[in-house]
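Chapter summary example.
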Amino acid sequence: MKRSERRFYFVVGFVILILACSGIFASHEVFRLTENKGLAGIWWGFCFIFQMPLLLIPLDKGRTIGFIGRVLPQAVSLCLVAWNLIQIFSLLLAPILIFIPATPDSVYGILIFVFIFFSIVFRSTHRVVKREISLKLGSLPSHWEPLTILHISDIHSGPFMRFSQLEKIVGRFNKEKFDLCVVTGDVVNHSAQDLGWTLDLLEKINSRLGTYAIMGNHEYIDNEKEIIKRYRSSKLELLLGSSKIIMNKLSQIRLIGVDYPFEDEMTSKLEIEKALLSSGEGLTSKTEEFRILLSHHPNGFISARELGVPLTLSGHTHGGQIKFGRLGVARLLYEFAMGLYEHQGSYLFVNAGLGNWLPFRINVPCEYALITVER
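The structure predicted for these 375 residues follows.
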């Protein structure tokens, strides 16, 4: 069984376990506090029905979730998300609730605790931090000019990233000093309709060498042909299995953009080589040009480092969105979870994302990165 298949079945099993445990626990607590079996049964039914969309996430790569988000009013969609978060949170409370006597005062105490907890979660979910990374590469040519890259990923425009939020963030970008901007996929959450206003805002980023983007898996949830068409008509340049040469004074940079690897979540060396040759501008020796791979899934780094690509920029993982110390959800699912990695002179940076697929983060804030490459 392939690693990607094992990961898939692990995620499905984990989601089923969450569904079962949270529903059973919640109904048990309702019965314990009310001693009403009928009410407990109804509660369990609601838990089961409203949590079923969670099971669809790994089974159809989010397409059904995208359909639900488009059909239902935004307020209803937000309520469903809130319900799921509360039920999952009930599992965290399980060890505490078992030893709390069933009294009205204890219920009030639990509600206050839940309110405080979700206030903390809300703050970390909407906080955007800047990460500054400096890479010194001795392999760069002597005439190399220092390059600063603004790296954005996983904006997820939609219910949890609205126009006003992104507008403020773009304002922050324009106060920074950088030369080049790259967007490594998942610009929209589930609807192609959200791409128009998102691109309008991204076009306002003051990038001296331009803004370049690639597709993520969420761009394929709803009408990817329309999404590609809108990209082509915008000021952003979409690299879809292609490469682009950029000149930074005397320094030559080649951006390589690969598509999302749905087959086995692994970008092959052949795909990267095809993207390199697609520009039609001929290949310069890799010692004379600086190559950057844009790959939404961080597994692209495995092939990139074998080909000697010095820098790979990725996203996708969101850093797992939940982390306690060194322990995080992403480390269970991905070889490259978040942050900077190095292997024999090749570097990978995995962005934890600017937005949220679900508005729930603990110790993994939203972020953008300023990466400076110098000799």
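To summarize the output: The chain has a mean pLDDT of 80.
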